[in-house]
Design a protein that fits this description.
By secondary structure, the chain is α/β, with parallel strands linked by helices. This is ABC-2 type transport system ATP-binding protein.
């Protein structure tokens, strides 16, 4: 895979006071968010929170009621084909072209992107390479209608990235994947972000997946972003302290601390080789997510959102 030019300092997504109303129902009540170049951001939220509406507005498939939206420097609602060629979308399912083969479909779709390639970012990806990367090489010439659900999902991913996008939207990307396919997909996401500089905004209900993939987590609840930060930073907002468990021989101890490194260093200075076990427990992303959503739903004051990202 050829390396791309270094990511730009300009955000690839900028959203300010985004609002969406259906009839008398306010779905989005003032969403603010930013995604930087090369960043992997996961949008979490309960059903009905407005995740799909937000993503569809960013993709240019839905007009907002109010607010400012800039994606790759343009308003998605009025952007043209050249902008569209820079964006990849992996929908929850692709069910067309049952009589085609994956190779033929990708060849056909890839042809649309060739005119929008640049010396720094040639388009599209080579079909054989892409089929290999998504684990579909051995099924490349089978009719799509005969593929299993997992194989179709791998093809969905290939369809979404065939144009070598600068920005990729992933909607529940690993639904239907077996554990090996999920691991392969996670490797692909890291490859796209690290080597290609591709910016990725994904939605998932798999919190373990979100924690593994995301540089930053956004939690959408009650029509707005209620939390923004790295998984570790958000956990510190909710938990405040971490739990350290250790043992000296048969004696076991537990202590809460907000400075794990200093506390553990003190344990080694005090006990040294007498330590027979040591474990540090942080609040999980699931703990954090549920606490943030509950705060929003009950109207309890939430801690200030963090924008602390470590790449």
């Amino acid at each position: 895979m050829p390396r791309s030019a270094p990511p730009s300092d300009d955000p690839v997504i900028e959203v300010r006071d985004l609002r969406m109303t259906y009839g008398t129902t306010e779905v989005l009540t003032g969403v603010d968010l930013t995604v930087d170049a090369g960043e992997v951001v996961c949008l979490l939220g309960p059903n009905g929170a407005g995740k799909t509406t937000t993503i569809e507005i960013l993709e240019g498939f839905r007009l907002p009621s109010a607010g400012e939206v800039r994606v790759l420097g343009e308003d998605p609602a009025h952007a043209g084909d050249a902008w569209r060629a820079r964006v990849g979308v992996v929908l929850q399912s692709w069910r067309d072209h049952a009589r085609w083969t994956p190779r033929r479909l990708l060849d056909q779709l890839g042809g649309y992107y060739a005119a929008y390639g640049t010396p720094e970012r040639p388009r599209p990806y080579a079909v054989d390479w892409l089929l290999e990367v998504v684990g579909m090489a051995e099924f490349a010439d089978r009719k799509i209608g005969t593929l299993s659900g997992g194989q179709r999902r791998r093809l969905d991913v290939a369809v979404g990235i065939i144009g070598r996008p600068e920005l990729l939207f992933l909607d529940e990307p690993t639904a239907g994947f077996d554990p090996q396919a999920r691991r392969d997909f996670h490797d692909l996401v890291h490859r796209l972000s690290d080597l290609e500089g591709t910016s990725i905004l994904l939605t998932t209900h798999d919190l373990d997946e979100a924690e593994k993939l995301a540089d930053r987590i956004l939690i959408l609840a009650d029509g707005r972003i209620v939390a923004d930060g790295s998984p570790d930073a958000l956990a510190r907002q909710v938990a405040g302290t971490s739990e350290v468990r250790w043992a000296c021989g048969r004696e076991r101890y537990v202590h809460g601390t907000d400075d794990v490194v200093a506390f553990v260093r003190g344990l080694f200075e005090q006990h040294g080789d007498e330590l027979t076990d040591l474990e540090v427990r942080h609040a999980s992303l699931e703990d954090t997510y549920l606490a943030m959503v509950q705060r929003s739903e009950t109207g309890a004051p939430a801690a200030p959102a963090l924008v602390e990202v470590t790449r």
